[in-house]
Automatic annotation (TrEMBL):
Keywords: Signal
Protein name: Phospholipid scramblase
Source taxon at top rank: Eukaryota
Signal peptide: 1-28
Family named by the database record: Belongs to the phospholipid scramblase family.
Xref: InterPro entries: Scramblase (IPR005552), Tubby-like_C (IPR025659)
Keyword Signal belongs to the record: yes
Pfam families: Scramblase (PF03803)
Length: 156
């Protein structure tokens, strides 16, 4: 029951137009409220790209999901080598069609710290909310982080 980290996704849309959205951001904090990193969505036409920033503002990892492979996101180090991944796992036809529940697998980079892993877990939630959640979901709307919604999540 103890909080170990907190994620915050600030409001990032223009109020007048739901299609004109800012690039998304997710901030990660430890249990004491200190920022441990953030995930920034990057502009890209052909890929779904994010950058993980550490607690002092330095880029740590890039996360790239090619459009031709919609369920896989590669975690890349500063030299562009793949060091891990975030993948949505197929849950079966009934679960995929009848529910909004998703399963993900994360392979953390070998050199990652516990802070890096917490921020990458937040990246997984952001990816889920941006690309795999249905906007028409009525149950649990207060926890939805779909485009245009604000949300704070706690793990613990």
């Amino acid at each position: 029951g103890q909080e170990i980290c907190r994620f915050n996704r600030p409001f990032r849309c223009f109020p007048s137009c739901c299609w004109c959205c800012w690039l998304q951001l997710l901030e990660a904090f430890d249990s004491h409220g200190a920022k441990i990193g953030e995930i920034k969505q990057l502009w890209s036409i052909f890929n779904r790209e994010f950058q993980m920033i550490d607690e002092v503002g330095n880029p740590k990892f890039d996360i790239m999901g090619p459009m031709c492979s919609p369920w896989t996101f590669k975690i890349l180090n500063n030299t562009g080598n793949e060091v891990g991944f975030i993948k949505k796992k197929w849950s079966g036809l009934l679960k995929e069609a009848m529910t909004d529940a998703d399963n993900f697998a994360i392979q953390f980079p070998p050199q990652s710290t516990y802070k890096d892993r917490a921020v990458l877990l937040g990246a997984t939630m952001l990816i889920d909310f941006l690309y795999f959640e249905r906007a028409d979901q009525s149950a649990g709307a207060e926890m939805s982080m779909g485009v245009g919604n604000m949300g704070t999540f706690r793990i613990g």
